[in-house]
Amino acid sequence: MSQNEKKPESKAKTVILCTVCLLMICLVVTGAVSGANYAFADKIAEQEWAATQTAMTAVLAADDYEEIHWDDTGEADGYRAITGGETAGYLFITAAKGYGPSISILTGIADGAVTGIAILDCSDETPGLGKKVDSAKFTDQFIGVTETPAIVKVAPSADNEIQAITGATKSTKGVTDSVSKAFELYAEVAE
């Protein structure tokens, strides 16, 4: 055996040592990220709530928002918008499958008509195509819709029609499906 050739046991030791080293690095990084998330969980929750409140005000302005629930999970299924002590409308956070696993939106409905929508999360949609659902040009189409929206490829000719984003039909469908879910929830609470 020449001096440049390594013994098979030395190669195995090197592989094992590198594997253990890589494993330790992964554990330390995972622990650091988990620790940071745990340490800042309250701050993260505050920022998420502030972003949701900003979206709520943009979609349906009110003096106050009261959580409403349909089950015992403790999670808000929606919000009642209250102005001057009276119900001004309702806000619903719904999600549906777009191109990615889920598009989450906030829909405001008052007197049976959409007051506006805000995209809360479309991070899994295709950049430059599906993420266009977050543009005002697209979301403003929903204002005034009074029933489940229909997707059209040309300029809308009816009140409930929404023009699809070219090349992003699945993302468009995800948003319209979310608005449809909001109408179903509205029908339950508006009774």
Give the distance, in angstroms, between the N- and C-terminal Cα atoms. 88 Å
Number of domains: 2
Strand order of the largest sheet: 1-2-3-4-5
Tell me the radius of gyration.
Answer: 25 Å
- Tell me the strand percentage band: 15-25%
Can you count the helices? Answer: 4
The helix content is 25-40%
Uncertain parts: none
Number of strands: 7
Class per helix and strand makeup = alpha+beta
> SSE string, helix = H, strand = E?
HHEEEEEHEEH
Indicate the overall shape.
elongated
**Biggest β-sheet strands, sense, barrel:** 5 strands, antiparallel
Instruction: Output mean pLDDT.
Output: 88
Notable features of this structure?
2 domains, 4 helices, two-stranded parallel ribbon, single chain, about 190 residues, alpha+beta
